[in-house]
Design a protein that fits this description.
This protein is of the alpha/beta class. The protein has two domains: about 160 residues, Bacterial extracellular solute-binding protein, family 7 (D-Maltodextrin-Binding Protein, domain 2, 3-Layer(aba) Sandwich), CATH 3.40.190; about 70 residues. Helix content is about 50%, strand content about 15%. It is built from nine helices and eight strands. The two termini are about 20 Å apart.
Length: about 230
């Protein structure tokens, strides 16, 4: 397979619902629409329970109180979906999904049959769309965040201490998942290795560079044992 990434978004909104979630203690007993297996495992460790719903069902689930809170995408998308009409509270940041990457998967044999010129055009198109997508979603996220607050949605931000605890639990969940499947371990090893490498530049320019400085990552040695 040849994979061409063509879009990236920043972190997602967080949890929106009818009940305030001001900190980790408020997650206990809450039913939250959350995508992702490992994200759900982290939520369970924090005392909440994961509810799996299609994106189109989140609005009504919040409105009817089927879930205490839900998430779907970035503020621009969530606001366009009407979350501001049914949610009174918004817990942020969206620690469960700090970024999203989209791409096209192409069969390698089919790719090899394309001319070098066509392959290059596809690569350039994907790279151009990638750059555009990030700036576009950041603008719409800004506008969405403003509109949500204008609709009366109250924002609650997780504290630094809360985020540190989430990171600790996440590290444990990552290693657990890595040891359940060799491919899972290979992917996580690649991601954590990249974050460690990127820190050589990122941390020198904090807080002005992209991403956040983090000195608490999953143990590469622990993940390597699962490969």
């Amino acid at each position: 397979m040849v994979y061409l990434p063509y879009a990236v978004t920043n972190n997602e909104s967080g949890f929106m619902g009818g009940k305030p979630i001001k900190g980790l203690a408020d997650l206990k007993g809450k039913r939250i629409r959350l995508s992702g297996r490992d994200q759900g495992r982290v939520l369970e460790e924090l005392g909440g329970s994961q509810v799996t719903l299609a994106g189109g069902e989140v609005y009504q689930a919040i409105e009817r109180g089927v879930i205490d809170a839900g998430e779907f995408n970035t503020p621009g998308v969530d606001q366009a979906l009407g979350f501001g009409e049914v949610a009174k509270h918004w817990a942020t940041p969206g620690w469960h999904q700090s970024a999203s990457v989209f791409g096209v998967m192409i069969n390698r044999d089919a790719w090899n049959k394309l001319s070098p010129d066509t392959q290059e055009k596809l690569k350039v198109a994907a790279e151009a769309t990638m750059a555009w997508s990030f700036s576009w979603t950041e603008r719409t996220s800004t506008e969405g965040a403003i509109k949500l607050q204008e609709q009366g949605v109250k924002i609650h931000q997780f504290s630094d201490q809360d985020l540190e605890k989430i990171q600790d639990i996440t590290n444990e969940v990552i290693v657990r998942g890595a040891c359940e499947d060799p491919m899972h371990a290979k992917i996580y090893h690649s991601m954590v290795s990249y974050m460690e490498h990127y820190a050589n530049w990122r941390d020198l320019t904090a807080p002005f560079n992209m991403s956040r400085s983090i000195d608490n990552l999953p143990s590469l040695a622990a993940i390597e044992k699962c490969l």
